[in-house]
TrEMBL record:
Designated name of the protein: Putative drug exporter of the RND superfamily
GO-annotated cellular components: plasma membrane
Natural source organism: Actinoplanes regularis
Entry superkingdom: Bacteria
UniProt-listed PROSITE patterns: SSD (PS50156)
Length: 717
């Protein structure tokens, strides 16, 4: 059914290629117009959990404390030599702060000369407190404008001023991630092109997947821009969407181009095939590889959407953004690419590179290394499988001491204004003051509550100022400055102790970024097994329908768990334990980003199905023609090993290039995904899968007759 439908789509596109190109021209023009909207309105990653205590505190501060502002930031002031307390420097500082206070988003500014502790011991740095109004996203977008104002006011003077706080730091992280994504693309795409040139042997065939992946990515960003008109989207999508979109987009296109070339070659029409031969080749490629692309994309998107069960904006935006990237990659491969292939026809084989003839049908020659490896696996499946499983289990061992945490990315901000200000703050004062805890209580004796909070280990100071009593006089806000880094495990423990603090004549709630980290960590932990169960269950059902087998989906689930576990183990070993800190240039936080394991699990499980579907469908084609499982495994692996290896190398290059990012979370994401793809394409697809299938024999294709009648036949030709 699916194969026939896609063949019909391919036939129509091949007969009307210019119409399809016209449709895509309109889509891409719209995407070009809308993409800047996403870039302008993107916000930093937020850790808020719907309905959590930290979310309630944020709402209380917005509605009941209109006089205090939504966010407390700092202006870090410094001079290279002269004392900032000297009259000349003081006049400059007062003038700059007076100008800042006139901005409509600024509620108030507290001068560094108004109280103790706001001028550094060496008198060459000072801090001014700034209260800002507006939403968190609005403050973040406004931060660069306020920094430019400070730059303009201090230009030509010995004083430098840096706006530092959650909003400014978050915007700087978004900028760093965007710059890192551009740098990664500049590294990953040329490597992908080199792999394609080596694997396909012609320039046009190699360029097609790159172009297809790029057009799909542009469409994805256009849709994100359209969505941004309604609501700002998470800035991490500017890095994750290119990573996923290019990786799967290039792979999907390569599978179709490879099958199209095979079909043309099988037709015996030479390098100048007629139009009917080209139309037939496109239709056949869509019926076979097109079906594989559709099924692969569907299972990836299905796995990613399971993240929506976690009631947090971070997971919603990641799930929808990555699903969109995969969806546009599938759409581009199944609509735009067939039109281009039709117009190119035999031109896809030009210009031929010197090694082209060696890569065409190389797997069919018995003397090649690939053919010898296939024979080894099929003749000795037990020892081969045992060695592969042992290697995967050893790689998985570090997962036993996995620790989840948050790294805000401040160490990767380089010479940005927020980064420089944060470093001065850490050296001369305390960087912890940037992200205080927000405590809101209704106790009548606020002084007693304040003193009890001060006695909690890990608390440096408790502050209360103008606007910290609610409009109705019933609630009090306290800013709790931590003595430990706000993204540390010790800070999370302070939040737990604060929330456990008994208040006999009222209630007490704790919010702020650190409280959000704790709420997200606990929500992630509580929903982990639900996400895992959904991913495993949906994958098993989907593959049962596609493969018409019970054993193959069960094998796929088990092997994907092995591959994912091994990738997690390498991630823990390299980043949490810091073994890769020097070669990859980062300071280990002693943990893995809290949202990464679950997000990576859903994504990796889906991506691993790409190669599973590609390999098993090719094996099944041969088995249906011959009825010989061993021959089917051998022939299927010989046909798919090179494309799978090339596809994995491409995806690993695109993902792995993100380790060059300055932001730790992007390094972790890129490394984890690249490691998982390489493990899956080598130890799993080219070793374990054929070995286990040879051992299972005819049981690979067993499906109870009653179940076969009940299940839909998606893959029927």
């Amino acid at each position: 059914m699916t194969g026939r439908a896609l063949a019909a789509v391919g036939t129509w596109v091949a007969r009307h290629p210019w119409r399809m190109l016209g449709v895509w021209l309109v889509l891409l023009a719209g995407a070009v117009a809308l993409e800047p909207v996403f870039s302008a309105r993107q916000t930093a990653i937020t850790y808020t959990v719907d309905g959590s205590e930290s979310a309630r505190v944020e709402e209380l501060l917005r509605t009941r404390f209109p006089g205090r502002g939504a966010e407390d930031d700092l202006v870090v002031l410094s001079t290279p030599s002269a004392s900032i307390a000297e009259p000349a420097q003081r006049d400059i500082v007062e003038r700059v702060l007076s100008r800042l206070e006139r901005e409509p988003d600024v509620v108030r500014v507290l001068s560094p000369y108004s109280g103790p502790g706001m001028v550094a011991a060496d008198s060459r740095a000072a801090v001014a407190a700034v209260a800002l109004r507006g939403s968190r996203a609005g403050i973040q977008r406004r931060a660069p404008e306020l920094q430019r104002l400070l730059d303009d006011e201090t230009r030509g003077t010995p004083v430098r001023a840096y706006l530092v706080g959650y909003g400014p730091l978050a915007q700087a992280v978004v900028d760093a991630e965007t710059a890192g994504a551009s740098r990664a693309e500049a590294i990953g795409v040329p490597i992908a092109l080199l792999v394609l040139l080596l694997a396909l042997g012609t320039v046009v065939a190699a360029l097609l997947p790159i172009a297809t992946g790029g057009f799909g990515l542009l469409l994805a960003f256009g849709i994100l821009g359209l969505a941004s008109l309604a609501t700002p989207l998470n800035g991490i999508l500017s890095a994750v969407v290119p990573m996923i979109g290019l990786g799967v987009g290039i792979d999907y296109a390569m599978f179709l181009v490879t099958r199209f070339r095979e079909n043309l070659a099988a037709g015996g029409t030479g390098t100048r095939p007629g139009r009917p031969a080209v139309v037939d080749a496109v239709a056949a490629a869509m019926r076979t590889s097109g079906t594989t692309v559709l099924f692969s994309g569907a299972v990836v998107m299905m796995c990613l959407l399971t993240l929506l069960v976690i009631p947090a904006q971070t997971f919603r935006h990641l799930a929808l953004g990555m699903t969109l990237a995969v969806g546009t990659a599938v759409l581009t491969a199944l609509t735009l690419l067939p039109a281009v292939l039709t117009l190119l026809g035999g031109g896809v084989e030009r210009p031929a590179l010197p090694w082209r003839d060696r890569v065409v049908a190389r797997a069919e020659r018995p003397g090649t290394a690939l053919a010898r490896w296939v024979d080894t696996v099929t003749r000795h499946p037990v020892p081969v499988a045992a060695l592969a499983v042992a290697a995967l289990l050893v790689a998985t061992l570090p997962v036993l001491h996995l620790r989840l945490g948050i790294d805000l990315g401040a160490n990767g901000l380089g010479d940005s204004a927020a980064g420089q200000g944060h470093r001065i703050l850490a050296e001369r004062f305390s960087a912890n003051a940037v992200l205080p805890l927000d405590v809101v209580h209704t106790a009548r004796d606020s002084g007693t509550v304040t003193e009890r909070i001060r006695r909690i280990p890990g608390v440096a100071e408790v502050l209360s100022g103008p606007g910290d009593r609610s409009a109705d006089g019933r609630s009090v806000h306290l800013s709790v400055i931590l003595a430990v880094p706000p993204d540390s495990a010790a800070a999370l423990e302070v939040v737990r102790e604060l929330r456990a603090l008994p208040v006999s004549d009222g209630d007490l709630q704790v919010g702020g970024p650190t409280a959000e980290f704790l709420d997200l960590s606990e929500q992630t932990r509580d929903r982990t097994w639900l996400v895992i169960a959904l991913v495993l269950g949906l994958s098993f059902v989907f593959l049962t329908v596609v493969f018409r087998s019970l054993l193959l989906p069960l094998k796929a689930v088990a092997m994907n768990l092995l591959a994912t576990g091994a990738a997690y183990g390498l991630l823990v070993w390299g980043f949490q334990d810091g073994r890769l800190a020097r070669p990859l240039d980062f300071a280990s936080s002693g943990s893995v980003q809290v949202y990464l394991p679950l997000t990576a699990f859903a994504l990796l499980f889906g991506l691993s199905m790409d190669y599973e579907v590609f390999l098993i469908r090719r094996i099944r084609e041969v088995w249906r023609a011959t009825g010989d499982t061993t021959h089917a495994v051998t022939a299927g692996l010989r046909h798919t090993a090179l494309p799978i290896t090339a596809a994995a190398a491409i995806m690993a290059a695109v993902f792995g290039a993100f380790v060059t990012s300055d932001v730790l979370e992007m390094k972790q994401i890129g490394f984890g995904l690249a490691a998982a793809v390489l493990i899956d394409a080598t130890l799993i697809r080219i070793v374990l899968v054929p070995a286990v299938m040879c051992l299972a024999g005819r049981w690979n294709w067993w499906l109870p007759a009653r179940l076969d009648r009940l299940l839909p036949h998606l893959d029927a030709d």
